[in-house]
Amino acid sequence: MSFGDHLEALRIHLWKALIGLAICVVLALFIGHKIVAVVRAPIDSALKEYNLDKLPEENPEEQQKSIEELIASLNAQQNPTVETKALQKILKDYQYRLNSLEDTMAEPVTLAVQEAFTTIYLKVSFVAGLVMASPWVIYQIWLFVAAGLYPHERKYVYIYLPISIFLFLGGALFCFYAVFPFVLNFLLGFNKLLGVNPQIRLSEWISFAITLPLMFGLSFQLPLVMLFLERISVFTVNDYKEKTRMAILIISIISMLMTPADPMSMLLMMLPLLFLYGLGIAMCKYFPSANASPFEAA
């Protein structure tokens, strides 16, 4: 193929990828509210747990039930006295306060009229559409790249690309379901310590909830990076073993740079990366040798 043919093929695959992305973004717009609900679930849960201390010590559901039973018994009286009517009013007022306290304190806020639509709904829908379209986009890129690869080079893509996707998804899910609860409880604890009431801006949480899983997904590529560097003879397995202390320092710095400025999220990234460092050494040792590597110089 000539250079012009390659450019034409690239143009076709890029257009197909963009069309697929546009379709997925439009589809995501119809379910954007459900996606936002999933993304905000960790902060809702953390705020509700944080605000439980501000509710009465008795279980709120049991207290609600007791109040309803007491109001029903008072309403059943044939000739209620002035004191009974006053007690009914007090109980209903307390019931309203209990409901509003539990509901309003556990919700993030927006600070502008258009923020919910532009900064939250559209942003989440676009990111969701990008995620939905990513298999199609990657497939179009692969069709273009594969045309210039030898069969043995394609074989390594078939092996390592699924591993890379698995590690990325593992890192993102680990962050969302394991890291967020610890980090949020840790950070909200300082609000309790200082005696201030947190008002979480939903748009800022959305950015945080998108960025941090992305950082975890990228950092979980460590074993493949180690394998690549070993295959092109930058490092050997013995180098990785002998320089473990240096690796721990580098992993600590990476964890600090890729997480917010709190020790909890840094620690929760650092510990899995230390395990993945060991996994990287094992992959270098037991995966196909460098002699069969597509990165080896001809």
UniProtKB/TrEMBL annotation:
<dbReference type="InterPro" id="IPR002033">
    <property type="entry name" value="TatC"/>
</dbReference>
<dbReference type="GO" id="GO:0009977">
    <property type="term" value="F:proton motive force dependent protein transmembrane transporter activity"/>
</dbReference>
<keyword id="KW-0811">Translocation</keyword>
<comment type="function">
    <text>Part of the twin-arginine translocation (Tat) system that transports large folded proteins containing a characteristic twin-arginine motif in their signal peptide across membranes.</text>
</comment>
<dbReference type="Pfam" id="PF00902">
    <property type="entry name" value="TatC"/>
</dbReference>
<feature type="transmembrane region" description="Helical">
    <location>
        <begin position="124"/>
        <end position="145"/>
    </location>
</feature>
<feature type="transmembrane region" description="Helical">
    <location>
        <begin position="244"/>
        <end position="261"/>
    </location>
</feature>
<dbReference type="GO" id="GO:0033281">
    <property type="term" value="C:TAT protein transport complex"/>
</dbReference>
<feature type="transmembrane region" description="Helical">
    <location>
        <begin position="12"/>
        <end position="31"/>
    </location>
</feature>
<feature type="transmembrane region" description="Helical">
    <location>
        <begin position="205"/>
        <end position="229"/>
    </location>
</feature>
<comment type="subunit">
    <text>Forms a complex with TatA.</text>
</comment>
<comment type="similarity">
    <text>Belongs to the TatC family.</text>
</comment>
<protein>
    <recommendedName>
        <fullName>Sec-independent protein translocase protein TatC</fullName>
    </recommendedName>
</protein>
<feature type="transmembrane region" description="Helical">
    <location>
        <begin position="157"/>
        <end position="184"/>
    </location>
</feature>
<keyword id="KW-0812">Transmembrane</keyword>
<keyword id="KW-0472">Membrane</keyword>
<dbReference type="GO" id="GO:0065002">
    <property type="term" value="P:intracellular protein transmembrane transport"/>
</dbReference>
<keyword id="KW-1133">Transmembrane helix</keyword>
<keyword id="KW-0813">Transport</keyword>
<keyword id="KW-0653">Protein transport</keyword>
<dbReference type="GO" id="GO:0043953">
    <property type="term" value="P:protein transport by the Tat complex"/>
</dbReference>
<keyword id="KW-1003">Cell membrane</keyword>
